[in-house]
Design a protein that fits this description.
Layout (H helix, E strand, L loop, with lengths): L3 H4 L4 E6 L15 E5 L2 H10 L13 H5 L12 E3 L3 E3 L2 H7 L2 E9 L11 E7 L2 E6 L4 H12 L6 E4 L14 H14 L3 E4 L2 H7 L6 E9 L5 E10 L19 E9 L14 H18 L4 H7 L10 H12 L15 E12 L7 E6 L5 E4 L9 H13 L6 E4 L16 H28 L6 E4 L2 E4 L2 E7 H5 L7 E6 L9 E12 L5 E10 L7 H17 L1
Parallel strand pairs: 7-8, 11-12, 15-16
Antiparallel strand pairs: 1-2, 3-12, 4-12, 5-10, 6-7, 6-9, 10-11, 13-21, 14-15, 14-20, 17-18, 18-19, 21-22
Helix pairs in contact: 5-6, 11-12
Length: 556
């Protein structure tokens, strides 16, 4: 790597060889070198002048190349990794019971996250202390990542994420671009901003792996699943996994599944909106449609017949019934559209599941003598409305309007909270906020109770007042109550507690689409999503999440 010419460009403040001489660059977009300058244009000019001499090595551009019998050994340990075989029941007996057998290969492709705001950060050093304003789903985890990558104490790293433009599973660490930004800033002794461009974003910030499965499946004449035999594979890029659940949700009493990861020279996978589940769902639901057609059963009735037992997080049968009625499923024609002309329409249906448990968040609340309330938590808002629900839960707990509470989040110096991923944030953060607010309120009750001549346990807070339970006239306004606090504010900590959140969910979706069979152009005309959300804290943001999931699925 020769950076001499780049160093001489006017305005250049720092250059960095990120890859060491002799290192293997495993894919296009694998970081090699970086430059910082006083304008973006000068930085781009300098980057073009960096000279890199490569030795071309054997490589794979796609899965078929990696799986070829004569494929060269590109990855240490092999070009594939065999996963564990999953097997239940008696596969031979299952196929003997089947009246019909479907055998086919189904597949999905690799897609990238395409966050509206690309990956990156601004880094600034003050001596040996780093501050990073970073686009991340894990403010505190990013501080840990910077510390480990740079070899400095975590106490010397301060990360801030007041707002960020989407992550979808791809933004939990500083990653190469964050570490490079910090190193450039240290060399330049100036703040450095490094945001990836869209091409870099596609190449090196993660993806949803591909998924292919060759499946044999059996069904009885009356529509009961009997057997599933699947061989699956996929690529998560250069040495990365590609796992997904298969079969998905439905009961195959006799089943076997083998899986292998296939490595190719492309950027590595990262979590992406329910990692693995869209792939496993798609592969299974296409199979279910073909099996339903074989036994000439309605696809909804066929699915209901083969569902697991109903439970709090397994409500598919109820949702299928409600959805079919709301969607007008009874107007669906059989598979294939006899309508003349090239535009064909059809309906589809599928079932979904996810976990989404919460745990481990901490919070801090201050109530001052002028009635001010500040709630602090080291979580972050990735666009889902976390800042809003933090304020809402605190305000409701104190009997105040949301405007009376100041939420402080998105800062690694705040009380610990985990990353925002896996649909866990609300279930992780809101219990901690609730517990902390109640702890603070109890302390305020202890101040107010003597003036009202009652025990603290007799008080309630609602409507901007603290009053005796069952006697709203005997009480004081919130601000008057807070005057009793004195100069030292009420300052309390709290953390997540069991019993205030759950885990697991189920949902179904119905879709109507048209296809121009001459051009291949597809149009999704209607989608109905029925989703168990648990307790809705904020209806607008919950609905927005459903819309976002549907839009992302159409894009897929």
């Amino acid at each position: 790597i020769d950076m001499a010419a780049a160093e001489k460009v006017p305005g250049v403040k720092a250059v960095l060889a990120y890859a060491q001489p002799g290192a293997q660059v495993m894919y296009q977009g694998d970081p090699v070198a970086a430059v910082a300058a006083d304008t973006e244009e000068r930085a781009l000019d300098a980057a073009r002048l960096i000279q890199v001499r490569y030795e071309a090595l054997p490589h794979f551009a796609n899965v078929d190349q990696a799986l070829a019998a004569d494929a060269p050994l590109v990855f240490t340990g092999g070009n594939t990794r065999q996963g564990a075989t999953e097997e239940t029941g008696d596969l031979v007996a299952g196929f003997q019971q089947a009246a019909h057998v479907v055998e086919a290969t189904y597949s999905t492709h690799v897609i990238t996250h395409v966050c509206l705001e690309t990956h990156g950060c601004v880094c600034e050093w003050d001596g040996d202390k780093l501050t990073a304003w970073i686009s991340t789903q894990g403010t505190i985890q990013s501080a840990q990542g910077f510390a480990q990558a740079l070899g400095i104490p975590q106490a010397n790293v301060h990360t801030i994420t007041q707002y960020m433009g989407g992550g979808f599973g791809s933004k939990f660490a500083p990653d190469a671009q964050g570490v490079i930004c910090a190193k450039l800033a240290r060399i330049a002794q100036l703040p450095v901003k490094l945001m990836l461009d869209r091409k870099e974003e596609h190449l090196d910030t993660g993806n949803r792996p591909s998924a292919t499965a060759h499946i044999r499946a059996g069904v009885t004449a009356d529509g009961m699943l009997t057997a599933f035999d699947g061989q699956s594979w996929g690529t998560g890029g250069a040495g990365a996994t590609s796992g997904f659940p298969l079969p998905y949700i439905y009961n195959f009493p006799n089943r076997k599944r083998t899986h292998k990861d296939v490595y190719i020279n492309a950027g590595q996978q990262r979590a992406m909106r329910a990692p693995g589940h869209p792939q496993g769902c798609f592969l299974t639901e296409i199979l279910m449609d073909e099996l339903a057609d074989r036994v000439k059963m309605d696809p909804v009735a066929f699915r209901v017949k083969n569902l697991p037992a109903a439970g709090p997080n397994a409500m598919w049968a109820e949702y299928f019934a409600r959805g079919a009625k709301a969607f007008g499923w009874d107007t669906r024609h059989a598979t294939g559209d006899p309508t003349p002309g090239p535009i064909k329409t059809g309906m589809g249906v599928s079932a979904h599941r996810w976990g989404g448990a919460g745990r481990g968040s901490h919070a801090h609340m201050d109530i001052t003598s002028d009635g001010g309330v500040v709630i602090k938590c080291g979580t972050q808002d990735i666009g889902t409305g976390t800042r809003t629900i933090v304020a809402m839960v605190a305000a409701e707990s104190l009997g105040l309007p949301v405007s009376a509470v100041k939420p402080e989040i998105g800062d690694s110096n705040l009380p610990f909270s985990g990353g925002s991923g896996g649909s866990t944030t609300a279930a992780t953060v809101t219990p901690a906020i609730r517990v902390t607010a109640i702890n603070a309120l109890d302390k305020l009750f202890a101040k107010v109770a003597p003036t009202l001549g009652v025990a603290p346990a007799d008080l309630v807070a609602e409507g901007g007042r603290i009053h005796v339970n069952g006697n709203s006239s005997k009480g004081v306004a919130w601000k008057d109550a807070c005057k009793l606090i004195g100069t030292e504010p009420i300052s309390v900590d709290g953390e997540w507690a069991d019993g205030l959140s759950g885990s697991g969910t189920s949902g179904v979706q119905f879709a109507e689409a048209s296809v121009d069979i001459e051009t291949g152009i597809e149009r999704v005309t209607r989608i109905l999503a029925i989703q168990d959300c648990g307790l809705i804290v904020n209806q607008l943001t919950a609905e927005s999440q459903a819309y976002g999931g549907v839009i992302a699925a159409i894009n897929f």
